[in-house]
Amino acid sequence: MLLNLMTAAIVTMLVGGDLIAQQNQPLGTIEIMVMDTYGKSLKGSQISIVRVDEMAPATRFTLSGPGVVRAPYGEYLTTGTASLHQDFHRKVTLKEDHLLVFVAFAFRDPGTSSVVYTDLHGEVVGSKNLRQGVVVRAVGVWSAFSKEASVSENGGFVLREMPYGEYLLLALRGSELVASERFTRTVREERATIHLRPETRE
């Protein structure tokens, strides 16, 4: 029992990744700011902060977007992922009370990526009259990505070279929004469907 109490006094661990500290080791604050290519706040990101000092105990924090963690002084690898953006990797050293880390995501350009993105096929469901003059625009939920395609007579559309990620699919007739669907494109999700509202009329 005494041994267990001594062990608990040496290492303090709070579930949830808020604090992992050793006795007699100074703590500092790591503040994470997340932004996109244009310097604007970016939502929908996942941030991981992992201690990489040799001989140091494993320390890991996970954030959903911007946040603040208290951690022992040391070297950390900060990684981040966000839909339609390149992964972020950066080593930082916490050696003072407060360290501000900017996680800046660059847009994932399929033209320069080693990954070959295939076309996204889809269908606009509704009567022929409702489909007339409609175009489909895909807008990235967490990015400035946008791509547009015309709708064929049978309601089909093809969006060329679409990266994997989260999109809002908009069915537009001129400047009028006639339908929308949220769609997440993955390896298994290769087709999208947009249902026109029954009350929409010419």
Overview features:
202 residues; mainly beta; Immunoglobulin-like; 4-stranded antiparallel β-sheet; 50% strand; disordered N terminus
Could you characterize what this model shows?
With 202 residues, the protein is mainly beta. A hairpin with a 2-residue loop joins strand 14 (165-173) and strand 15 (176-185). The chain has a 4-stranded antiparallel beta sheet with strand order 5-4-7-8, with no helix packed on it. Strands 12-11-14-15 form a 4-stranded antiparallel beta sheet, with no helix packed on it. Strands 6-3-9 form a 3-stranded mixed beta sheet, with no helix packed on it. 6% of the residues lie in helices and 50% in strands. It folds into 2 domains: 2-104, Carboxypeptidase-like, regulatory domain (Immunoglobulin-like, Sandwich), CATH 2.60.40; 120-195, Carboxypeptidase-like, regulatory domain (Immunoglobulin-like, Sandwich), CATH 2.60.40.1120. It is built from 2 helices and 16 strands. The radius of gyration is 24 Å and the shape is elongated.
Main β sheet profile:
4 strands, antiparallel
Helix content: under 10%
- Identify the quaternary structure here: single chain
- Alpha-carbon distance between the two ends: 79 Å
Tell the overall outline: elongated
Q: Secondary-structure element sequence?
A: HEEEEEEEEEEHEEEEEE
Low-pLDDT stretches are 1-21
CATH class of the largest domain: Mainly Beta
Mean pLDDT, nearest integer? Answer: 79
The proportion of strand residues reads over 45%
Q: Give a count of the beta strands, DSSP E runs of length 2 or more.
A: 16
Can you tell me the CATH superfamily of the largest domain?
Carboxypeptidase-like, regulatory domain
* Radius of gyration, whole Å: 24 Å
Number of domains: 2
- Count of DSSP H/I helices: 2
CATH fold description of the largest domain: Immunoglobulin-like
The helix-and-strand class reads mainly beta
Named at the architecture level, the CATH assignment of the largest domain is Sandwich
Major sheet: arrangement of strands? 5-4-7-8
